[in-house]
Amino acid sequence: MTTNRALVVVALVTAGSCRSSNTAPLVIGAPVREYALTTRIEDGGETRTEQLVVRRPFASRIVLHQGERRTALGRLATRSSSEWTVLEVPPAGAGSDLRPDIALSAAVRRHIVQRRGQRTVAGRRCQIYRAAAPVSAGALVGMVPTPARHTDFCVGRGAIVLEQTDVERGRVVRHLRATRVRTGASTPDVLAIPTVDSLPVAAGGGRTRPISVAARPAFDRFYALPDPPRGFAAVGRFAVAPPALAGATSLVADVYVDGADFVIVDQGATSGGPVPFDTGRPTSTVELGELGQAEVVLDLRANEVRVRLPDNGFLRVIGTRPPADLVALARQLRLVPKSEPEAKPEGDRANQEVA
């Protein structure tokens, strides 16, 4: 069967099995900490295989036909041949890992995502959801999906996306389907970031360094949680200069973890121009008391509560928790007085992997 005919068959099967369902949704349950996927990808008339290994919340390794990419807390390593390039990046979740469990309930209530039927992929039952645009990068869009333009994605237990089908103008243009799934087993050391020098700032790289949590960063306004979120442990506070600036000149991030979950409170400043908030994702507004009005952003990788501060400053609470949990945390933030000593770097501990 040719690739084009296979995609047509996928469209017909998907249409038949993805009609709106009145049955109870599949219970996704708690997110698994570790998993590995082998995925068959049909895209633009070509077929290829992708291998993904994830150790939540920060570590991942993805092998493509043209190269490899690994992530850890504050690190991104890529190669297209034998040479590795390592970047120091702002703290974020594991690369290529989706966490649909944190946003689906809110997205369905707001009609951004439709719950459809169920099917079996790679021997695992999964619940199909329909969005208006591709979700591979985690982003949702504030539009209603249509038969002619949508993405169906199937979420299995443990919050693992097993299949995605992108439809444009009524035709399947891209299809990803897991052919092998492994969960619960220890992942190999291939997740480790290669021990090579990171790309210098002057060459477009960034810097991520631990700083003392007992000292106040030199921002006009600096906010912090009085205690870690319930159930979470503090990883540390990091001073970040994003690669190629990325719209911000400086960031300070407080990182917390609880098993497969993370919460990051980060705040920053720009040298001028607009605050670097992306647009296009569905947002709602909420009042945070002293902090004023905030935007709540739905996303299939990490939800976000974000606030614009005076003098081109910004504050975000980002994490793999439902939006209401992040709003509650944002309301707990306190303003740290300027009288406290300024933070100093703590050596080079940021080079250590935190998986």
The CATH superfamily title of the largest domain: Lipoprotein localisation LolA/LolB/LppX
CATH architecture identity of the largest domain: Clam
Cα shape:
globular
The string of secondary-structure elements, in order, is: HEEEEEEHEEEEEEEEEEEEEEHE
Alpha-beta content class: mainly beta
Low-confidence runs of at least 5 consecutive residues: 1-18, 348-354
Find the CATH topology of the largest domain: outer membrane lipoprotein receptor (LolB), chain A
- Distance linking N and C termini: 42 Å
> Please, how many domains?
2
The side-by-side strand order for the widest beta sheet comes to 6-5-4-3-2-1-11-10-9-8-7
- The total beta strand count reads 21
Largest sheet: 11 strands, antiparallel
CATH class of the largest domain: Mainly Beta
What Rg, in angstroms, do the CA atoms define?
21 Å
Number of helices: 3
Q: Report strand %.
A: 35-45%
Mean pLDDT: 88
- Helical content band: under 10%
3D structure, described in words:
The structure is a single chain. The protein has 355 residues and is mostly beta strands. It has helices at 3-17, 104-109, 323-330; strands spanning 34-43, 46-55, 59-64, 67-72, 75-79, 85-88, 114-121, 124-131, 150-156, 160-168, 171-183, 207-211, 223-224, 233-241, 250-258, 261-269, 283-287, 293-297, 303-309, 313-319, 334-335. The protein folds into two domains: 3-183, outer membrane lipoprotein receptor (LolB), chain A (Clam); 201-351, MucB/RseB, C-terminal domain (Phosphorylase Kinase, domain 1). Strands 6-5-4-3-2-1-11-10-9-8-7 form an eleven-stranded antiparallel sheet, covered by helices on one side. Strand 3 (59-64) and strand 4 form a beta hairpin. Residues 1-18 and 348-354 have low confidence and may be disordered.
